[in-house]
Amino acid sequence: MKILNTMMKTAFLAVAAVFAAVSCETDPNSLPAEIDAVPKTITLAREGGEALITVDATRDWKVEVSYTGGDTEDWLTVTPATGGASNNSVAVRISASANDDADREAVISFRADFLTSEVRVSQPGAHVDYTTIEEFLEAPVNDETWYTVRGTIFVIEKSKSTGEESTYGNIWIKDETGILYVYGLTTTQQDSNDQSFPELGLKLGDVVVLRTLRAEYDGEPQGGGTIPAYYISHSPAEDNPEDDILISDDPAQNWLELPEVEIDDDEVFTFHHTEADGVRVRNYSMLYNTTERLALWVAYPLCDIYTASGNRTDAWGFDPKIPDAWEPIIPDSWGVNGYARGHQIPSAARNANKEMNRQTFYFTNMTAQDYDFNSGLWADVEELERDAASQFDTLYVVTGPILDADGDGYWEYFQDNAGNSVAVPEAYFRVLLGVQADEYNAIGFFYLNGDNGHTRPQESDLCTVAEIEEKTGITFFKNLPPERAAEVKSQRNPELWGL
Hints:
It holds the Pfam family Endonuclease_NS. The chain is 13% helix and 37% strand. It has helices spanning 2-21, 133-138, 354-358, 371-375, 377-389, 465-472, 482-489, and strands at 35-38, 41-43, 49-57, 61-69, 77-79, 82-83, 90-96, 104-112, 115-123, 147-156, 170-175, 178-186, 207-212, 215-217, 220-235, 267-276, 279-289, 294-302, 339-343, 366-370, 394-402, 412-415, 421-424, 427-436, 439-448, 462-463. β22 (412-415) and β23 (421-424) form a beta hairpin.
């Protein structure tokens, strides 16, 4: 081991020497602000060890470490933790001692001015290998193979008759790969559910290890079933804090679809990227309200690189960029008759591949939408949008809820599957901006979240973007050429939009 350690130290010094040997006359502060740290993911051995991160930054930078899974103590060492603007790459060494506990994870954020580059670090612990939820969902249905699954409990179902936690142990769990419904959990292996679940004393946030067969009900995969899952071990919620995860607003961009980004204390601006035709592209952006548990608007571009046929995932799950504690917990449904989990950016607008489609099923992209409106009039507007996109280079879209459409200062709330209050919008808006060369064409839609008196979009439904701005207080398409903005936002051309 001494020889190996000496070799690793020698290699590190050699790499550091190479980085230090290269210089350039250009002042890095005169260059565009950039920071990049690679590799993006690192796995350290359970026995402990070191790894190198290469940092390129044209501004002074510093390191922040967030412990996002498992041990929340300072188990990761990062050297150096700060650096200056440079034309040259800098070698940063990370190290950790042996991990004799559970798996642990951390995010290292390299911050320079308003820019951030993240590296995710994981280290397995001294436990058996678990089947990830993603692997479990992909496994075939069977009544012979038992899987060991580990996940955080985020829903414990209640009895519909008593309102108390069910004695059958019907729970939802999650890991970094997905979410899973477990229909029945018992203290020991049983042929049928003995209703022993309350003896376990499990609570929301506990990380539970269980054994289960791969079952299915009504076409949906699940753990447990006729033969229930059974308990192996757990760690209490207080040992697995999630609220400690740092979150900050993503930097505003100059994308044409973006409204003016105005952020209150309980709001977060964020965006997601994906791949299309092998190229990294933006998927969508949102302004998310943590109090109301919904996005106040979602903005996205639409062109042929985003659409195809098929690839719908139904991968309902948490948004990795928003703490779970702030999201609506709706893995199954709202649990309220007459309301659907309504997408803001539609699944059908992002079906070129499964990864970009999966991101549309994040809970943060959902609102409580009247079922008939969701599957009728609003779905037709979304189809009109996709049809219209074909006549432009790119169609830019902003859509969102209006909580207080009647201006009385009141709107309704539902409880999600975990008992959290979630706002129910009174109305919805949608604004479209089609761009072809130097030509701009815009239109808006406004509908109540319910019966609008018709089931297909009509010419009378159309609004100018300026009218939607007045209804919402949002300034749309802030990156339009200033000399064109007023004229474009006053357009109302039904024929162009097929009405």
